[in-house]
Amino acid sequence: MLEIYEQITGQTAADSVATELTKMIESVNRDHPETHLAQAVENGVAKAFEEGVRRHNWDLAKIQEKGASALKRFSQLDVVRDVFEDAKLHPSQLSIGVTPVQWSVNHLRRRVPSGQRVHSSWATGS
Questions:
Q1: 52: exposed, middle or buried (C-beta count within 10 Å: 0-12, 13-18, 19+)?
Q2: Are 63 and 98 in contact (CB under 8 A)?
Q3: Which domain, by its residues, includes 22?
């Protein structure tokens, strides 16, 4: 957060500002732990989506065609709903529709020759 402050203001934060920012961050984290939990769940979903793309050998067109609906079905599974419930999260708090699909498309578009299938070496960067 201090780096962002410095980027915005062009100045190093005074000790009093750094202390206040730290207190604010701690307060938000304490009062709204679901924020970090939601990000962790989003990261897990994105990783699982990418693994599914490799396992099913989808090309970029297939990711764009079926990705969002696959993620929607995933979020409706009982086991996933149980995780949401245990974490006191609602699927609407997560960006599990477009974000993993778009990330995968962008990531793979840079690595996969047009019209070819996704191979694990392309997806992992090997």
A1: middle
A2: no
A3: 1-31
Which residues lie below 8 Å from residue 104, measured CB to CB, with a gap of 6+? Answer: 46, 49, 50, 53, 63, 67
Q: Which helix or strand (DSSP H or E) is residue 111 part of?
A: helix 98-111
Residue with tokens 């050998």: 57
Please report the pLDDT score of residue 16 as a whole number. Answer: 92
Asked whether residue 123 carries a pLDDT value surpassing 70, the answer given is: no
Query: Of residues 63 and 103, which shows the higher confidence score?
Result: 63
Counting the structural domains of the chain, the total is 2
Q: Domain check: are 73 and 110 in the same one?
A: yes
Task: Report the predicted TM-score, pTM, of the whole model to 2 decimal places.
Answer: 0.53
* pLDDT over threshold 70, residue 1: yes
Residue 58 to residue 66: CA distance in whole angstroms:
10
- Asked if residue 71 and residue 53 are part of one domain, the reply reads yes
Which residue is associated with the tokens 């149980």?
82
* φ/ψ bin of 117: left (φ > 0), alpha (ψ from -120 to 50), beta (otherwise): beta
